[in-house]
Amino acid sequence: MAVITLDDLDLRILDQLQKDASLTNQALAEIVHASPPTCMRRVRHLRQTGVIEKQVAILNPDKVGPSMTAIIEVTLDVQTAERLQHFEQRVQRETAVLQCYRVSTGPDFVLIAQVADMPGYHALVHRTLTADANIRNVRSFFSVHRSKFEIRLPLASSH
After folding, report:
1. Between the CA of residue 19 and those of 6, 33, 58, what are the distances in Å?
2. Is residue 78 located within the same domain as residue 138?
3. Are 129 and 121 in contact (CB under 8 A)?
């Protein structure tokens, strides 16, 4: 995967869009001190090159109904490239799994899942984990309090 070279203007644009992706092009251009056509061209390029993957609304899970966050460690029995990929594909289809990380030392994967309640968690585990014969171990932790949640990437910038 190629790393894209970003200049100071790109970094300012990205920093602002991470704070508020709903800004109009005009407002964004004013904040980053660029002309609107330049800003629009830069944002389009950042999207086309995949630097900006997508723009979304971030919801507060406590405001949309009952919710429980589960942090799940998964160890596979066989860790061939094919088996790892199979597990990742299975998890990608599961809407309750918000994040999936292949990790080193310890479990093979760490999943972050959002479910309504304990029966929802059990249904997720049954659907996604216990049905797979290649899973050796599952260890889960449940969040009792979220003290920080951030998706902004820290960007090195000259400003």
Report:
1. 18, 16, 11
2. yes
3. no
